[in-house]
Write a structure and sequence with these properties.
The chain is an alpha/beta fold and 484 residues long. It has two domains: 271 residues, Aldehyde Dehydrogenase, Chain A, domain 1; 194 residues, Aldehyde Dehydrogenase, Chain A, domain 2 (3-Layer(aba) Sandwich). Helix content is 39%, strand content 21%. The strands form six sheets. A seven-stranded mixed β-sheet has the order 15-18-19-14-13-20-21, sandwiched between helices. Strands 10-9-8-11-12-22 form a six-stranded mixed β-sheet, with helices on both faces. A hairpin with a 2-residue loop joins β2 and β3. α2 runs antiparallel to α5, α2 packs across α6 and α3 crosses α4.
């Protein structure tokens, strides 16, 4: 039976592509077609941008408290429909259902946080150096925003961008990943049901990436681009945005070090390392542990315990009870992970567990890969230098604090880093010296709504979350009043 076409959401209407084109959305656990989605082209892109432009002034003029009320209604509806949203996340992304439920619960929190932050966008009255003049500074919404989100967190990546934009008074054109558009469309339905005014939020579904770059991200009516994805793609967007100096905020690639010092609390450090490597979309996250450094004096104890813990992980389709690691998103991703593992072995690394496709029984039709641990890895190996984006853990040994900080920082990336120690002085030193936008000190749970999140170096521009997150969607205006 052919699935019904899922239409995109433009100017508060559900529309198909003018040329009738569609693309398929696959379940990565078995490659079944779970939806056929309208494949937008030039006409739909321009219609979405024009709708956002037309809606902007009216939405921006609403008092922040009123915008906040709409956002709180969106949050409440997401809460009501949490399990339905989580099922969509698991269907199109593959992650275990319980992990998807946690994602949706976290995602909806951005609407609550930024609903309150909308009332706190404030300027200032600046004392005048001249008696005949007065000076004040205003923050105003920047204008229509293009948001481009990835597939690894189909709910969180959307709400983390659109909630602050809407709270600030901006209108939005969202282009979700073509692998996972269904969650975004469900969120569009929720915004409609919550009473968000016409044209303020638009969801453009398309697999035509080049057209998005040529038409949406360079459109003269778009004043801000929010993008999460690879550093390579981010650099291309930056070059295109330079044509009209469009404001940018990026969360790009990562190469997170996870450091276990000899004085670490052993159990929490072990659990944290396994969780931050394998239990966030099976390692398909920019803030996942990419390199795990263990101090030599505890390596003989820590490494076997880590390998045993990885061997106990349950790999299964996302709706299976007890599933901890689901499939990878597609064959390209699985092949890249496997190529990095094979390359490391050829260069002298030892395979402690995993290192192969899972293809039997319930894994036969999906993109499953065995959780993998590699020993004797060196910093020069590609698996320690590139973003793995999958369930493979390279373990490296170090001797001194100074050495491991230097090695951890020796990368063009700077998104997230983690370390475990019970030495308070070391905790302060290392936290200050690591060149990363997010540092987990004895913590491997990631960030929360209340703090800013973003990267150093080639891992990004700007910040999402915290009070900084809403400022990214505002312009600063200085007003000089001559009293004559």
């Amino acid at each position: 039976m052919t699935p019904e076409i899922e239409r995109m959401y433009i100017d508060s209407e559900w529309v198909e592509a003018e040329d009738g084109a569609t693309f398929d959305v696959l379940n990565p656990a078995d490659q079944s077609v779970i939806a056929r989605v309208a494949n937008g082209a030039r006409r739909e892109i321009h219609r979405a941008v024009e709708a956002a432009h037309a809606a902007f002034k009216g939405w921006a003029a609403l008092p922040p408290k009123d915008r906040g009320r709409v956002l709180l209604r969106i949050q409440a509806l997401m809460e009501e429909r949490r399990d339905d949203l989580a099922r969509l996340v698991t269907l199109e992304n593959g992650k275990p259902f319980e992990e998807a439920r946690k994602e949706v619960q976290f995602a909806l929190g951005y609407f609550g946080w930024f609903a309150e932050e909308a009332r706190r966008i404030a300027g200032e009255w600046v004392p005048s150096p001249q008696p005949g003049k007065r000076y004040w500074v205003l923050r105003q919404p920047i204008g229509p925003v293009a948001a481009v989100t990835p597939w690894n967190f189909p709910a969180t990546m959307v709400t983390r961008k659109i909630a602050p934009a809407l709270a600030a008074g901006c209108s939005v054109v969202l282009k979700p990943a073509s692998a996972t558009p269904l969650t975004a469309l469900a969120l569009a339905r929720i915004t409609q049901d919550a009473g968000l005014p016409r044209g303020v939020f638009n969801v453009l579904t398309t697999s035509r990436s080049r057209l998005v770059g040529d038409e949406l991200l360079t459109h003269p009516l778009i004043r801000k681009i929010g993008f999460t994805g690879s550093t390579e793609v981010g650099k291309g967007i930056m070059a295109a945005a330079a044509r009209q100096v469009t404001r940018l905020s990026f969360e790009l690639g990562g190469n997170a070090p996870f450091i276990v010092f000899e004085d670490a609390d052993f159990g929490p450090a072990l659990d944290g390392a396994v969780a931050m490597k394998f239990l966030r979309v099976g390692g398909q996250s920019c803030i996942c542990a990419n390199r795990i450094y263990i101090q030599r004096s505890i390596a003989d104890r820590f490494i076997p315990a880590f390998v045993d813990a990885v061997k106990r992980l349950v790999v299964a389709p996302g709706f299976e009870p007890g599933a901890q690691v689901g499939p990878l998103i597609n064959e390209e991703t699985r092949a890249k992970v496997h190529a990095l593992v094979e390359d490391a072995v050829e260069r002298g690394a030892r395979l402690a567990t995993g290192g192969h496709y899972l293809t039997e029984g319930p894994y036969a039709k999906g993109f499953f890969y065995a959780p993998t641990v590699l020993l004797d890895v060196t910093d020069a190996m590609p698996i320690a230098r590139e973003e793995i984006f999958g369930p493979a853990a390279p373990l490296l040994v170090f001797d001194t604090e100074e050495e491991v900080v230097r090695r951890a920082n020796a990368t063009t990336f700077g998104l997230a880093a983690y370390f475990y120690t019970r030495d308070t002085a070391r905790l302060v030193r290392v936290a200050e010296q690591l060149e990363y936008g997010l540092v987990g000190a004895n913590d491997a749970t990631g960030y929360t709504h209340e703090i800013p999140f973003g990267g150093f170096k080639e891992s990004g521009l700007g910040r999402e979350g915290g009070h900084e997150g809403i400022e990214e969607y505002t312009e600063v205006k200085s007003v000089v009043v001559n009293l004559g």
